[in-house]
Amino acid sequence: MEGETFQSLAFIACLLFHRLFSRNHDYWKRRNVPHVEPLPLFGSSLDMLYVPLCFIELQRYRRFGLLYGYFEGSRPILSVGDPQLLEGILDWRTKIFSNRRIGNTPLQRSQSSAMRDSQRKCQNGYRAAEGTSPQKHFNCNSSKTFSLRVSILSVTKQELHQAVELKTGDKIIDNMVSVKGGEDSKRIRNIMTPLFTSNKIRKITENVFQDSVNTLINNFRTAAANKSAADLKRIYGTFTMDVISVSAFSFRSERYNNPDNTLTRLADSILNQKLKVKLIFHHLLPIWLMRILRIDISSSADTSELRRIILEIIEERQRTGERRNDFLQSLLDIYEKSPSASSDKYLSMDELVSQCAVFFLAGYETTASALSFATYLLALNQEIQEKLRAEVDAEMERNDDHLTYDALKSMTYLDQVISETLRLYPPAFRLERQAEDDYRLGNTGINIPKGMVITIPVFAMHRDPKFWPNPERFDPERFTPEEEKKIPKYCYLPFGAGPRKCLGQLFAKTEVKFCLAHVVRYFKINTCPETNIPLEFDLSQHGLLQPKDIKVSLVPRHL
Questions:
Q1: I need a labelling partner for 349 at 20 to 30 A (CA). Which of 152, 365, 400, 489 fits?
Q2: In the prediction, which pLDDT does 108 show?
Q3: What is the DSSP string of 211-227?
Q4: What is the pLDDT of residues 206-248, one digit of tens each?
Q5: Residue 306: which region, alpha, beta or left (left: phi > 0; alpha: psi -120 to 50)?
Q6: Are 243 and 336 in contact (CB under 8 A)?
Q7: How is the chain split into domains, by residue range?
Q8: Residue 146: predicted pLDDT
Q9: Cβ–Cβ under 8 Å, residues 395 and 403
Q10: Which residues bind heme (predicted)?
């Protein structure tokens, strides 16, 4: 009898478990939307443990088309790769999709839906109280239930606030312009945009890039003299770390000779975490539950240390009155002139520190990856390399072996090579947007509810033969002025688009152009036995395309 009771309880427990983690798995089927068949508990996320996400999205895109659904746990997600539909999502005028998600936030009903539901008794028996908003009343009941449950786990009041507000609890991350939402994001972007004008970049090109590229060339010459393959990720990482350290904080990292210096260690740790299981939790659990269970998707210890270092630099400058010509100083000047918190020109100290951090982190690995990809592709395509070298040689000989900002702007083939590199290997291989209100998706008949996350498979779109003939071929001619006009809008998204477009686009492209021009000028780039063909990639996190070792042979030119 006891055995039968146990079996019955086990059977019921299995049914409840299956029901709990399979709820909503018919969401896309009920709406006749092509979709990835979900698994109980994991939804469509299990293959992320062993296949890079960019290739998962490419496979799904080719199987299901430009528009399909999938699941993170029980949460429905919509992948949109149709340029016409993306215009309504990414356009500057569309405010509904102006934010990214922070974590696994719940779908929400619109105010009108809540009003309709509140006007009748539901299965759970809730009813709007007289004189109150049904939506407000419902949220209040939900928060009471939530508070009761989490109190058992001894969550602090601060953690509860962070959970309800859907924040990570990390001061660095929560205040980044790339994470901030709504008017706060718009305010900070408006403050930061003047810091990335062409005149600002011109000064950085003349004062910062040249010293850093000289060190880079010496490092490549050392590798060539030792007859060893050049480790592109490491050496370009040294260059970009040097550039970003000087541009942000006015000191050189010397990463090549001191790879364990604090800033390098922190950047590598924050950007290169091996998440795997944590990433699955990120897809399965709401962010408030991850906070309660102490599951950190980022390394809070590392971001806290980075915050401490930036604050120490600020305190030292304020103490001595020393001024520097760098990104931090520009933000400090804005901070010191900030009006009241209600002003659209206000910048808090927490926000200042976070923008320094995002400039430092975003300008490090993505730029190093772009340079590595470009150099690798030139090694595989000697004719393109020679054509680029001819343009670089002609321009540098006209300028006494020196490159100015204006000279870079005139090098059209160099620009084409970099644009084509970013098509094949966009460092940010996907975009995400979260609906701030209900939205009807074009003429598809799909209604996107408030809170739903839209993913945009940039890597897959960039390899779609409908938009790019022979898409696997490296062909800079796609980006001649004449051909570029033929590219449909929202088909090419290496820097995003709309109100969330990358602020540092001009800075990054100028840095890549300056560096690559010098490498092609002073070296012939070849493949070698250590060159991986095709490239291999790490399991991607943070939406960044992360190659494993990229090694080539660099032969010095005798000029």
A1: 365
A2: 55
A3: HHHHHHHHHHHHHHHTT
A4: 788 988 999 999 999 998 998 889 999 999 998 999 999 999 9
A5: alpha
A6: no
A7: 169-556
A8: 34
A9: yes
A10: 502
CA angle centred on 247, ends 242 and 251, rounded to 5° = 60
- Note the residue count of the chain: 559
Query: Among residues 57, 87, 105, 78, which one has the least CA distance to residue 455?
Result: 78
Pairing of strands 523-526, 230-231: unpaired
| Backbone dihedral angles phi then psi of residue 249, each to the nearest 5 degrees | -130, 0
Q: How far is CA 116 from CA 123, 133, 431, 447, in A?
A: 14, 12, 34, 17
- Cα 417 from Cα 479, distance rounded (Å): 8
User: Which single residue is written with the structure tokens 């993306």?
Assistant: 86
Residue 172: C-alpha distances to residues 298, 300, 334, 550 (Å)? 11, 9, 19, 31
> What residues are designated binding site for heme?
502
What's the start-to-end Cα distance of the chain, in Å? Answer: 91
CATH fold of 169-556 reads Cytochrome p450 (1.10.630)
Residue type, 443: N
* Binding-site entries: 502
Strand 453-456 with 446-448, pairing: unpaired
Which SS3 state, helix, strand or coil, does residue 36 take? coil
> How many helices (H) and strands (E) are present in the chain, helices listed first?
25, 9
Tell me the C-alpha distance between 148 and 402, whole Å: 68
What is the spatial distance between Cα 270 and Cα 100, in angstroms, rounded to a whole number?
20
Would you call 547 helix, strand, or coil by DSSP? strand
Dist. CA 450–CA 118, nearest whole Å: 18
Q: How far is CA 538 from the centre of its chain?
A: 16
DSSP state of 107: P
Contacts of 24 (CB under 8 A, 6+ apart): 71, 74, 75, 76
Q: How far apart are CA 51 and CA 47, in angstroms?
A: 6
User: What kind and span of H or E run contains 552?
Assistant: strand 551-556
Question: According to the model, what pLDDT value does residue 39 have?
Answer: 87
Pairing of strands 446-448, 439-441: antiparallel
Q: Where are the beta strands (DSSP E) in 369-438?
A: 431-434
User: Whole-angstrom Cα distance, residue 173 to residue 190?
Assistant: 19
pTM over 0.85: no
Q: String of b and e for 288-313 (b: at least 16 CB within 10 Å)? A: bbbbbeeebbbbeebbebbbebbeeb
Q: What 3-state DSSP class applies to 82?
A: coil
- Rounded to the nearest 5°, which phi and psi values hold at 211? -60, -40
**SS3 at position 18:** helix
Please state, in angstroms and rounded to a whole number, the distance separating the CA atoms of residues 246 and 208: 7
Residue 67, SS3?
Answer: strand
Q: Which tokens belong to 188?
A: 């900070």
What are the Cα distances from residue 487, in Å, to 80, 452, 468, 496?
18, 29, 8, 15
